[in-house]
What does this fold into?
Amino acid sequence: MKTDRAGVWEYWNRFWFQPLVAPSAPISRALIGCASLLVFANHAVLASQWLGDSGWFNGSAALALAGQGLEGTGAEYRWSPLYYYPWLGFPLTLLGIIASLAMIVGRWSWLGCLIAYVVLVMIHHRIPLLINKGEPLLVAAVLYCTLLTPIQETSLFRVFSNLAFRMLQVHFLLWMAMSLFSMLANETWWTGEAVRQLIVDGQGFLPSKGTPLWCAEFLAHSVLVLQVGILATALNPSIRPLGRWLTIAFCAVILLVIGDWIYAAILFATSTSIWPIPSGIAVSTHESRSR
Amino acid sequence: MHSTPQPFSRPFRWIVSGLLVLHFVGIVCAYSANWRRSGLQDDLLSVLNPYLIGMDWSLELIPVEWNRAQASDLPTQLVGMDESGQQTVILDSQSRDWDRDRKRQILRVLVSLLESQSDDVATPCLASIVAHSEQLTGRMFRSIQLRKPLESNTDPINVYEAFVVRMEGDPLRFVPAIDAQRTVPRTPQAASSSSQSEAAR
It folds into this structure.
């Protein structure tokens, strides 16, 4: 029993505290930067309509929805200068775009990640309940990436990089598990009604009229099976390579059913922490070139 | 078993391990409590909220399951009517706009709030939406209606109808003509609301 405990502790240490040996880490950060760029570009286009004080959702509406003045809602922990300076919406999204570019090219990337994270939180705190489905995952991924230091750094920095990379992997899997369980908790995902309604509402790229019922039901079952498959392949090293294709298929289904490019991009980018892009087609970043 | 060289001391690793466990317990708690939560989760979240909300780890009712196909997810329209009786669709859950996800979500939230009679929370949202729509269309709305079917494959009905009340320098206010989810007019207010909105103008 004592040996087992020692083995678990040794495995735990190796998982979290060994120096980073994943050469794909800068590529993952660059892809997360691309997803972040998409998110900021989207916020920039919609800034006047959704972040300004004369838009669809002004500061009073946001505070009311966040539960200001009600105990237990946590509204008092929201901090965003956008409540006091609504004109800051567009400049902040531009700052986020520049920070995302720093993440992509790999120069001053830790600072880029930190700035992108802070700006994302400001925006999220300003428009509670209305952010993209994948943005909570993205904000975590961007913060973890601040610790992804260049690979040729000292052993101590490489341990921090490993810690960040592992947190990103675990967070991605928790996200997928939560997404799966949320769907399984709804009867409409078992019957296919959830997807049928999305298709009828014309949310994705399938025609709202003329798509047969069996197609909606097939897609609903596929969404569940793909998520089970992604989790199973990530946790089982012998079938892990299959997970990359399941993730790509899942992102394709997202586009078909809800047409959400940003969510698909965020999921794909964060999944590369587990399934790295093959080196032959990987984008070259500043750090990967200098190695 | 081969042991890897560790740049961190053992006590430091213990501390970091403890923080990692706490961090991910908080994340799991926040994610799993998105729609429903136990008393234990509620207690834990009230302790962890400064960290989870302050650092933006929480989900806040974002529809991560895409669609639940429940009453609040049925096709919904917020319609404004001006003095001449002309109707303008302010928000449509089936729109194909670039920001359709946000419009769909805000309608879903409005339906939930109005059905649960949380008018005090819904009013600032409605005021913001109606004021922005008036700015876009150049029309002044006399009343608004929230239309949706009560069940799938049925015709939409007005689940909420209210007169718009304008006071100089104040946000818009709304006097309901019918209660949410009820087709029977709220008689005393319905009768007085039209005169009230007239007086406000």
Remarks:
- Residues 171-283 of chain A form one domain.
- DSSP finds 13 helices and no strands in chain A.
- Chain A touches chain B through 76 residues (CB under 8 Å).
